[in-house]
Amino acid sequence: MDTGAIDLPENSPIEDGALDALFAPFTPHPRILIAVSGGPDSTALLYLAARWRAGRASGPDLIAATVDHGLRAEAAAEAEAVGAFATFLGVPHRILIWQGAKPTHGIQEAAREARYDLLADAAREAGATAIALAHTRDDQAETVLFRLARGSGLSGLSGMRGDAARDGLALLRPLLDVPKARLVATLEAASVAFVRDPSNSDPRFARPRLRAMAPTLAGEGLDARRLAVLARRIARADQALEAATDAAEAAVIRLGAEEHPGAVSLDVRAFAALPDEIALRLLGRAIQKVGTEGPVELAKLEALYEALKAAAHVPSGPFRRTLAGALVSLRGAALRVSAAPPRRERGLLARNSPVDGPVVLGKKGPRS
User: Where is the tRNA(Ile)-lysidine/2-thiocytidine synthase N-terminal domain (predicted)?
Assistant: First the structure.
């Protein structure tokens, strides 16, 4: 979401006059849960949202929640401090505990998923229809770099959305085009305390390493503002490609006939006439409809598509490949995607497939 905030100095406090534009996405919701860790971004989100709501005659009920992951000794006290600040602002607050054993590898990813699950459960219990998250322009830039380094396609490089949905809940990011420096300046101007999580600068993790590179990249012109603009432009292009794929799906895909229940058949001539990007997305959608082993990796979907194109242009017998629990077969003019047999029954098909394995799909097609 673009806001007037981006035209102001990047270290200036956010004034009340900017709040209606920032929090316009809140207005359709009767109750919103704000995720607050105690760091500067989420503390500013809570503070600004409470200011905005206090200045309105009506609007959504606000509640706040803090997840204690149990990974740092200070976390419990920090969560209590957030609760005290929320109470001061007149916002009800809950502390959510991540219980159970913690993984030894991929701890940040696991903590992120656990945090979402806890917040989603708390939102539903409270009757909230949305969760507000404090991602900033800096986070958006970091996400674009992170996904670029991992070979993402257009859907991944479009970054985070200002408003999204997951499991029946809206995910709102009202600060997505606001620089972190403005949030820190806002808190400092109001003498509001916040904490800094040391894991956010721990070089053992990829995101902190990217964060440490930000000043160097900015010196070359690749700053957070420019990366955020890039994400918006890619999102715009991705949306257009998804619309084109929707149209192609209606024209090319046929759901399984009686002799192949559950399978997806594609009109080979129409499929071959599609631009590569649309055909690739359409193939991904077909695999997603019937596959049993997703999510999947974009590079492997691309490899499968290239092999399929080669087989179509130079026929050399039946083409059969498995990917993400789906079997893609081409025999003459018949292109079909169906559920693959269990791995133990695939024999040479599984062993000889150059693309067998998982692929990351987005809404309906490839995403990573």
Answer: 32-212
